[in-house]
Design brief:
It is a single chain. With about 290 residues, this protein is α+β, with helices and mostly antiparallel strands. The protein has a 5-stranded antiparallel β-sheet. Strands 13-14-12-15 form a 4-stranded antiparallel β-sheet. A hairpin with a 6-residue loop joins strand 5 and strand 6. The longest helix has 15 residues. The N and C termini lie far apart (about 60 Å).
Length: about 290
């Protein structure tokens, strides 16, 4: 691929760009941009309404190595490592003229959907999808504004906002599992507010500080919690014992299942710091879970 065209691809994967913006980035004339875009064989188009270039299809014919790196960083579960990789990302940027772009034609369908979703997020695209809800055998047609891709323990979740075209639950935020999405299609490019978000969360959505439980971790569980940053959970350390054998945490949650999960994972090395109506109810649910084994 022509090196200038490769650089145009590199820019458009992350955002819609005007002719002047591309000319400035590539340090060439706007006429050169027009000529290089012609080499894309119609894969790049210009929108007068949006005032910039974008890919004709949501899935471009090629992606760059820089774009691939950004997707890989998003796939890192360990928060310490992920933060480090984000901090040095600029040092990892590969000269787009040194490597040929990566064709997308033979990639797996799930990887194609990840690429399409990330470009839709970057470009403010309204999408239509078929979604298979876990509680229903029927697929539902939904219109979404994709906000963010979040990878939790190897599973891909998409934070979305329901678009007005959805008719119901308009403007409500949801967390959708990537494997439950099919027939992902572009509806339109949105000109206005930015869809993209950068929040921390898990399979139950964005972390919030509305509900929490105080838990005490002991022994090996205490050491693990202090050593590792668990991006599947949202918590704050309240205090720890003088000898470091236990630590008290404030665990925030969107769904009580999150508290049940962490207790079942570490019992008997975790207990509620305080006994109250909530703790009694959660422990009763855990007891019932084990009785059903």
């Amino acid at each position: 691929m022509d090196s200038k065209l490769s650089n145009i691809y590199a820019q458009l994967l992350f955002k819609l760009c005007s002719k002047d913006e591309l000319a400035s980035k590539l340090k060439v004339s706007t006429k050169t941009i027009e000529n290089k875009v012609k080499l894309s064989n119609g894969n790049i188009v210009y929108s007068k309404r949006l005032g910039g270039y974008h890919f004709k299809d949501l899935l471009p014919d090629n992606i760059t190595h820089n774009f691939l790196i950004s997707l890989l960083i998003n796939n890192i579960n360990n928060k310490n490592l992920k933060d480090d990789m984000q901090n040095i990302k600029d040092d990892l940027v590969i000269d787009t003229t040194s490597f040929n772009p990566i064709p997308t034609q033979n990639l797996s369908e799930i990887f194609k959907n990840i690429i399409k979703l990330q470009i839709a997020i970057n470009h403010n695209c309204i999408l239509s999808i078929d979604y298979q809800n876990a509680t229903s055998s029927q697929k539902e047609k939904k219109f979404i504004q994709p906000n963010q891709i979040n990878v939790i323990n190897g599973s891909y979740y998409i934070y979305v906002t329901y678009d007005k075209k959805n008719k119901v639950n308009v403007d409500e935020k949801r967390t959708l599992h990537l494997h439950s999405i099919s027939n992902l299609n572009l509806v339109e490019y949105h000109k206005g507010n930015t869809f993209k978000t950068n929040v921390e969360g898990n399979a139950f959505g964005e972390f919030k500080n509305e509900n929490y439980a105080e838990l005490t971790f002991k022994g090996k569980a205490s050491s693990f919690i202090k050593r590792e940053r668990l991006n599947s959970f949202h918590y704050e350390i309240i205090d720890e014992s003088f000898d470091g054998s236990s630590v008290n945490l404030k665990f925030f949650y969107n769904n009580e299942i999150e508290i049940i999960k962490i207790i079942q994972q570490w019992m008997p090395l975790v207990t509620f710091t305080k006994k109250n109506e909530f703790s009694v109810r959660i422990l009763e649910r855990i007891k019932n879970n084990f009785n059903q084994l």
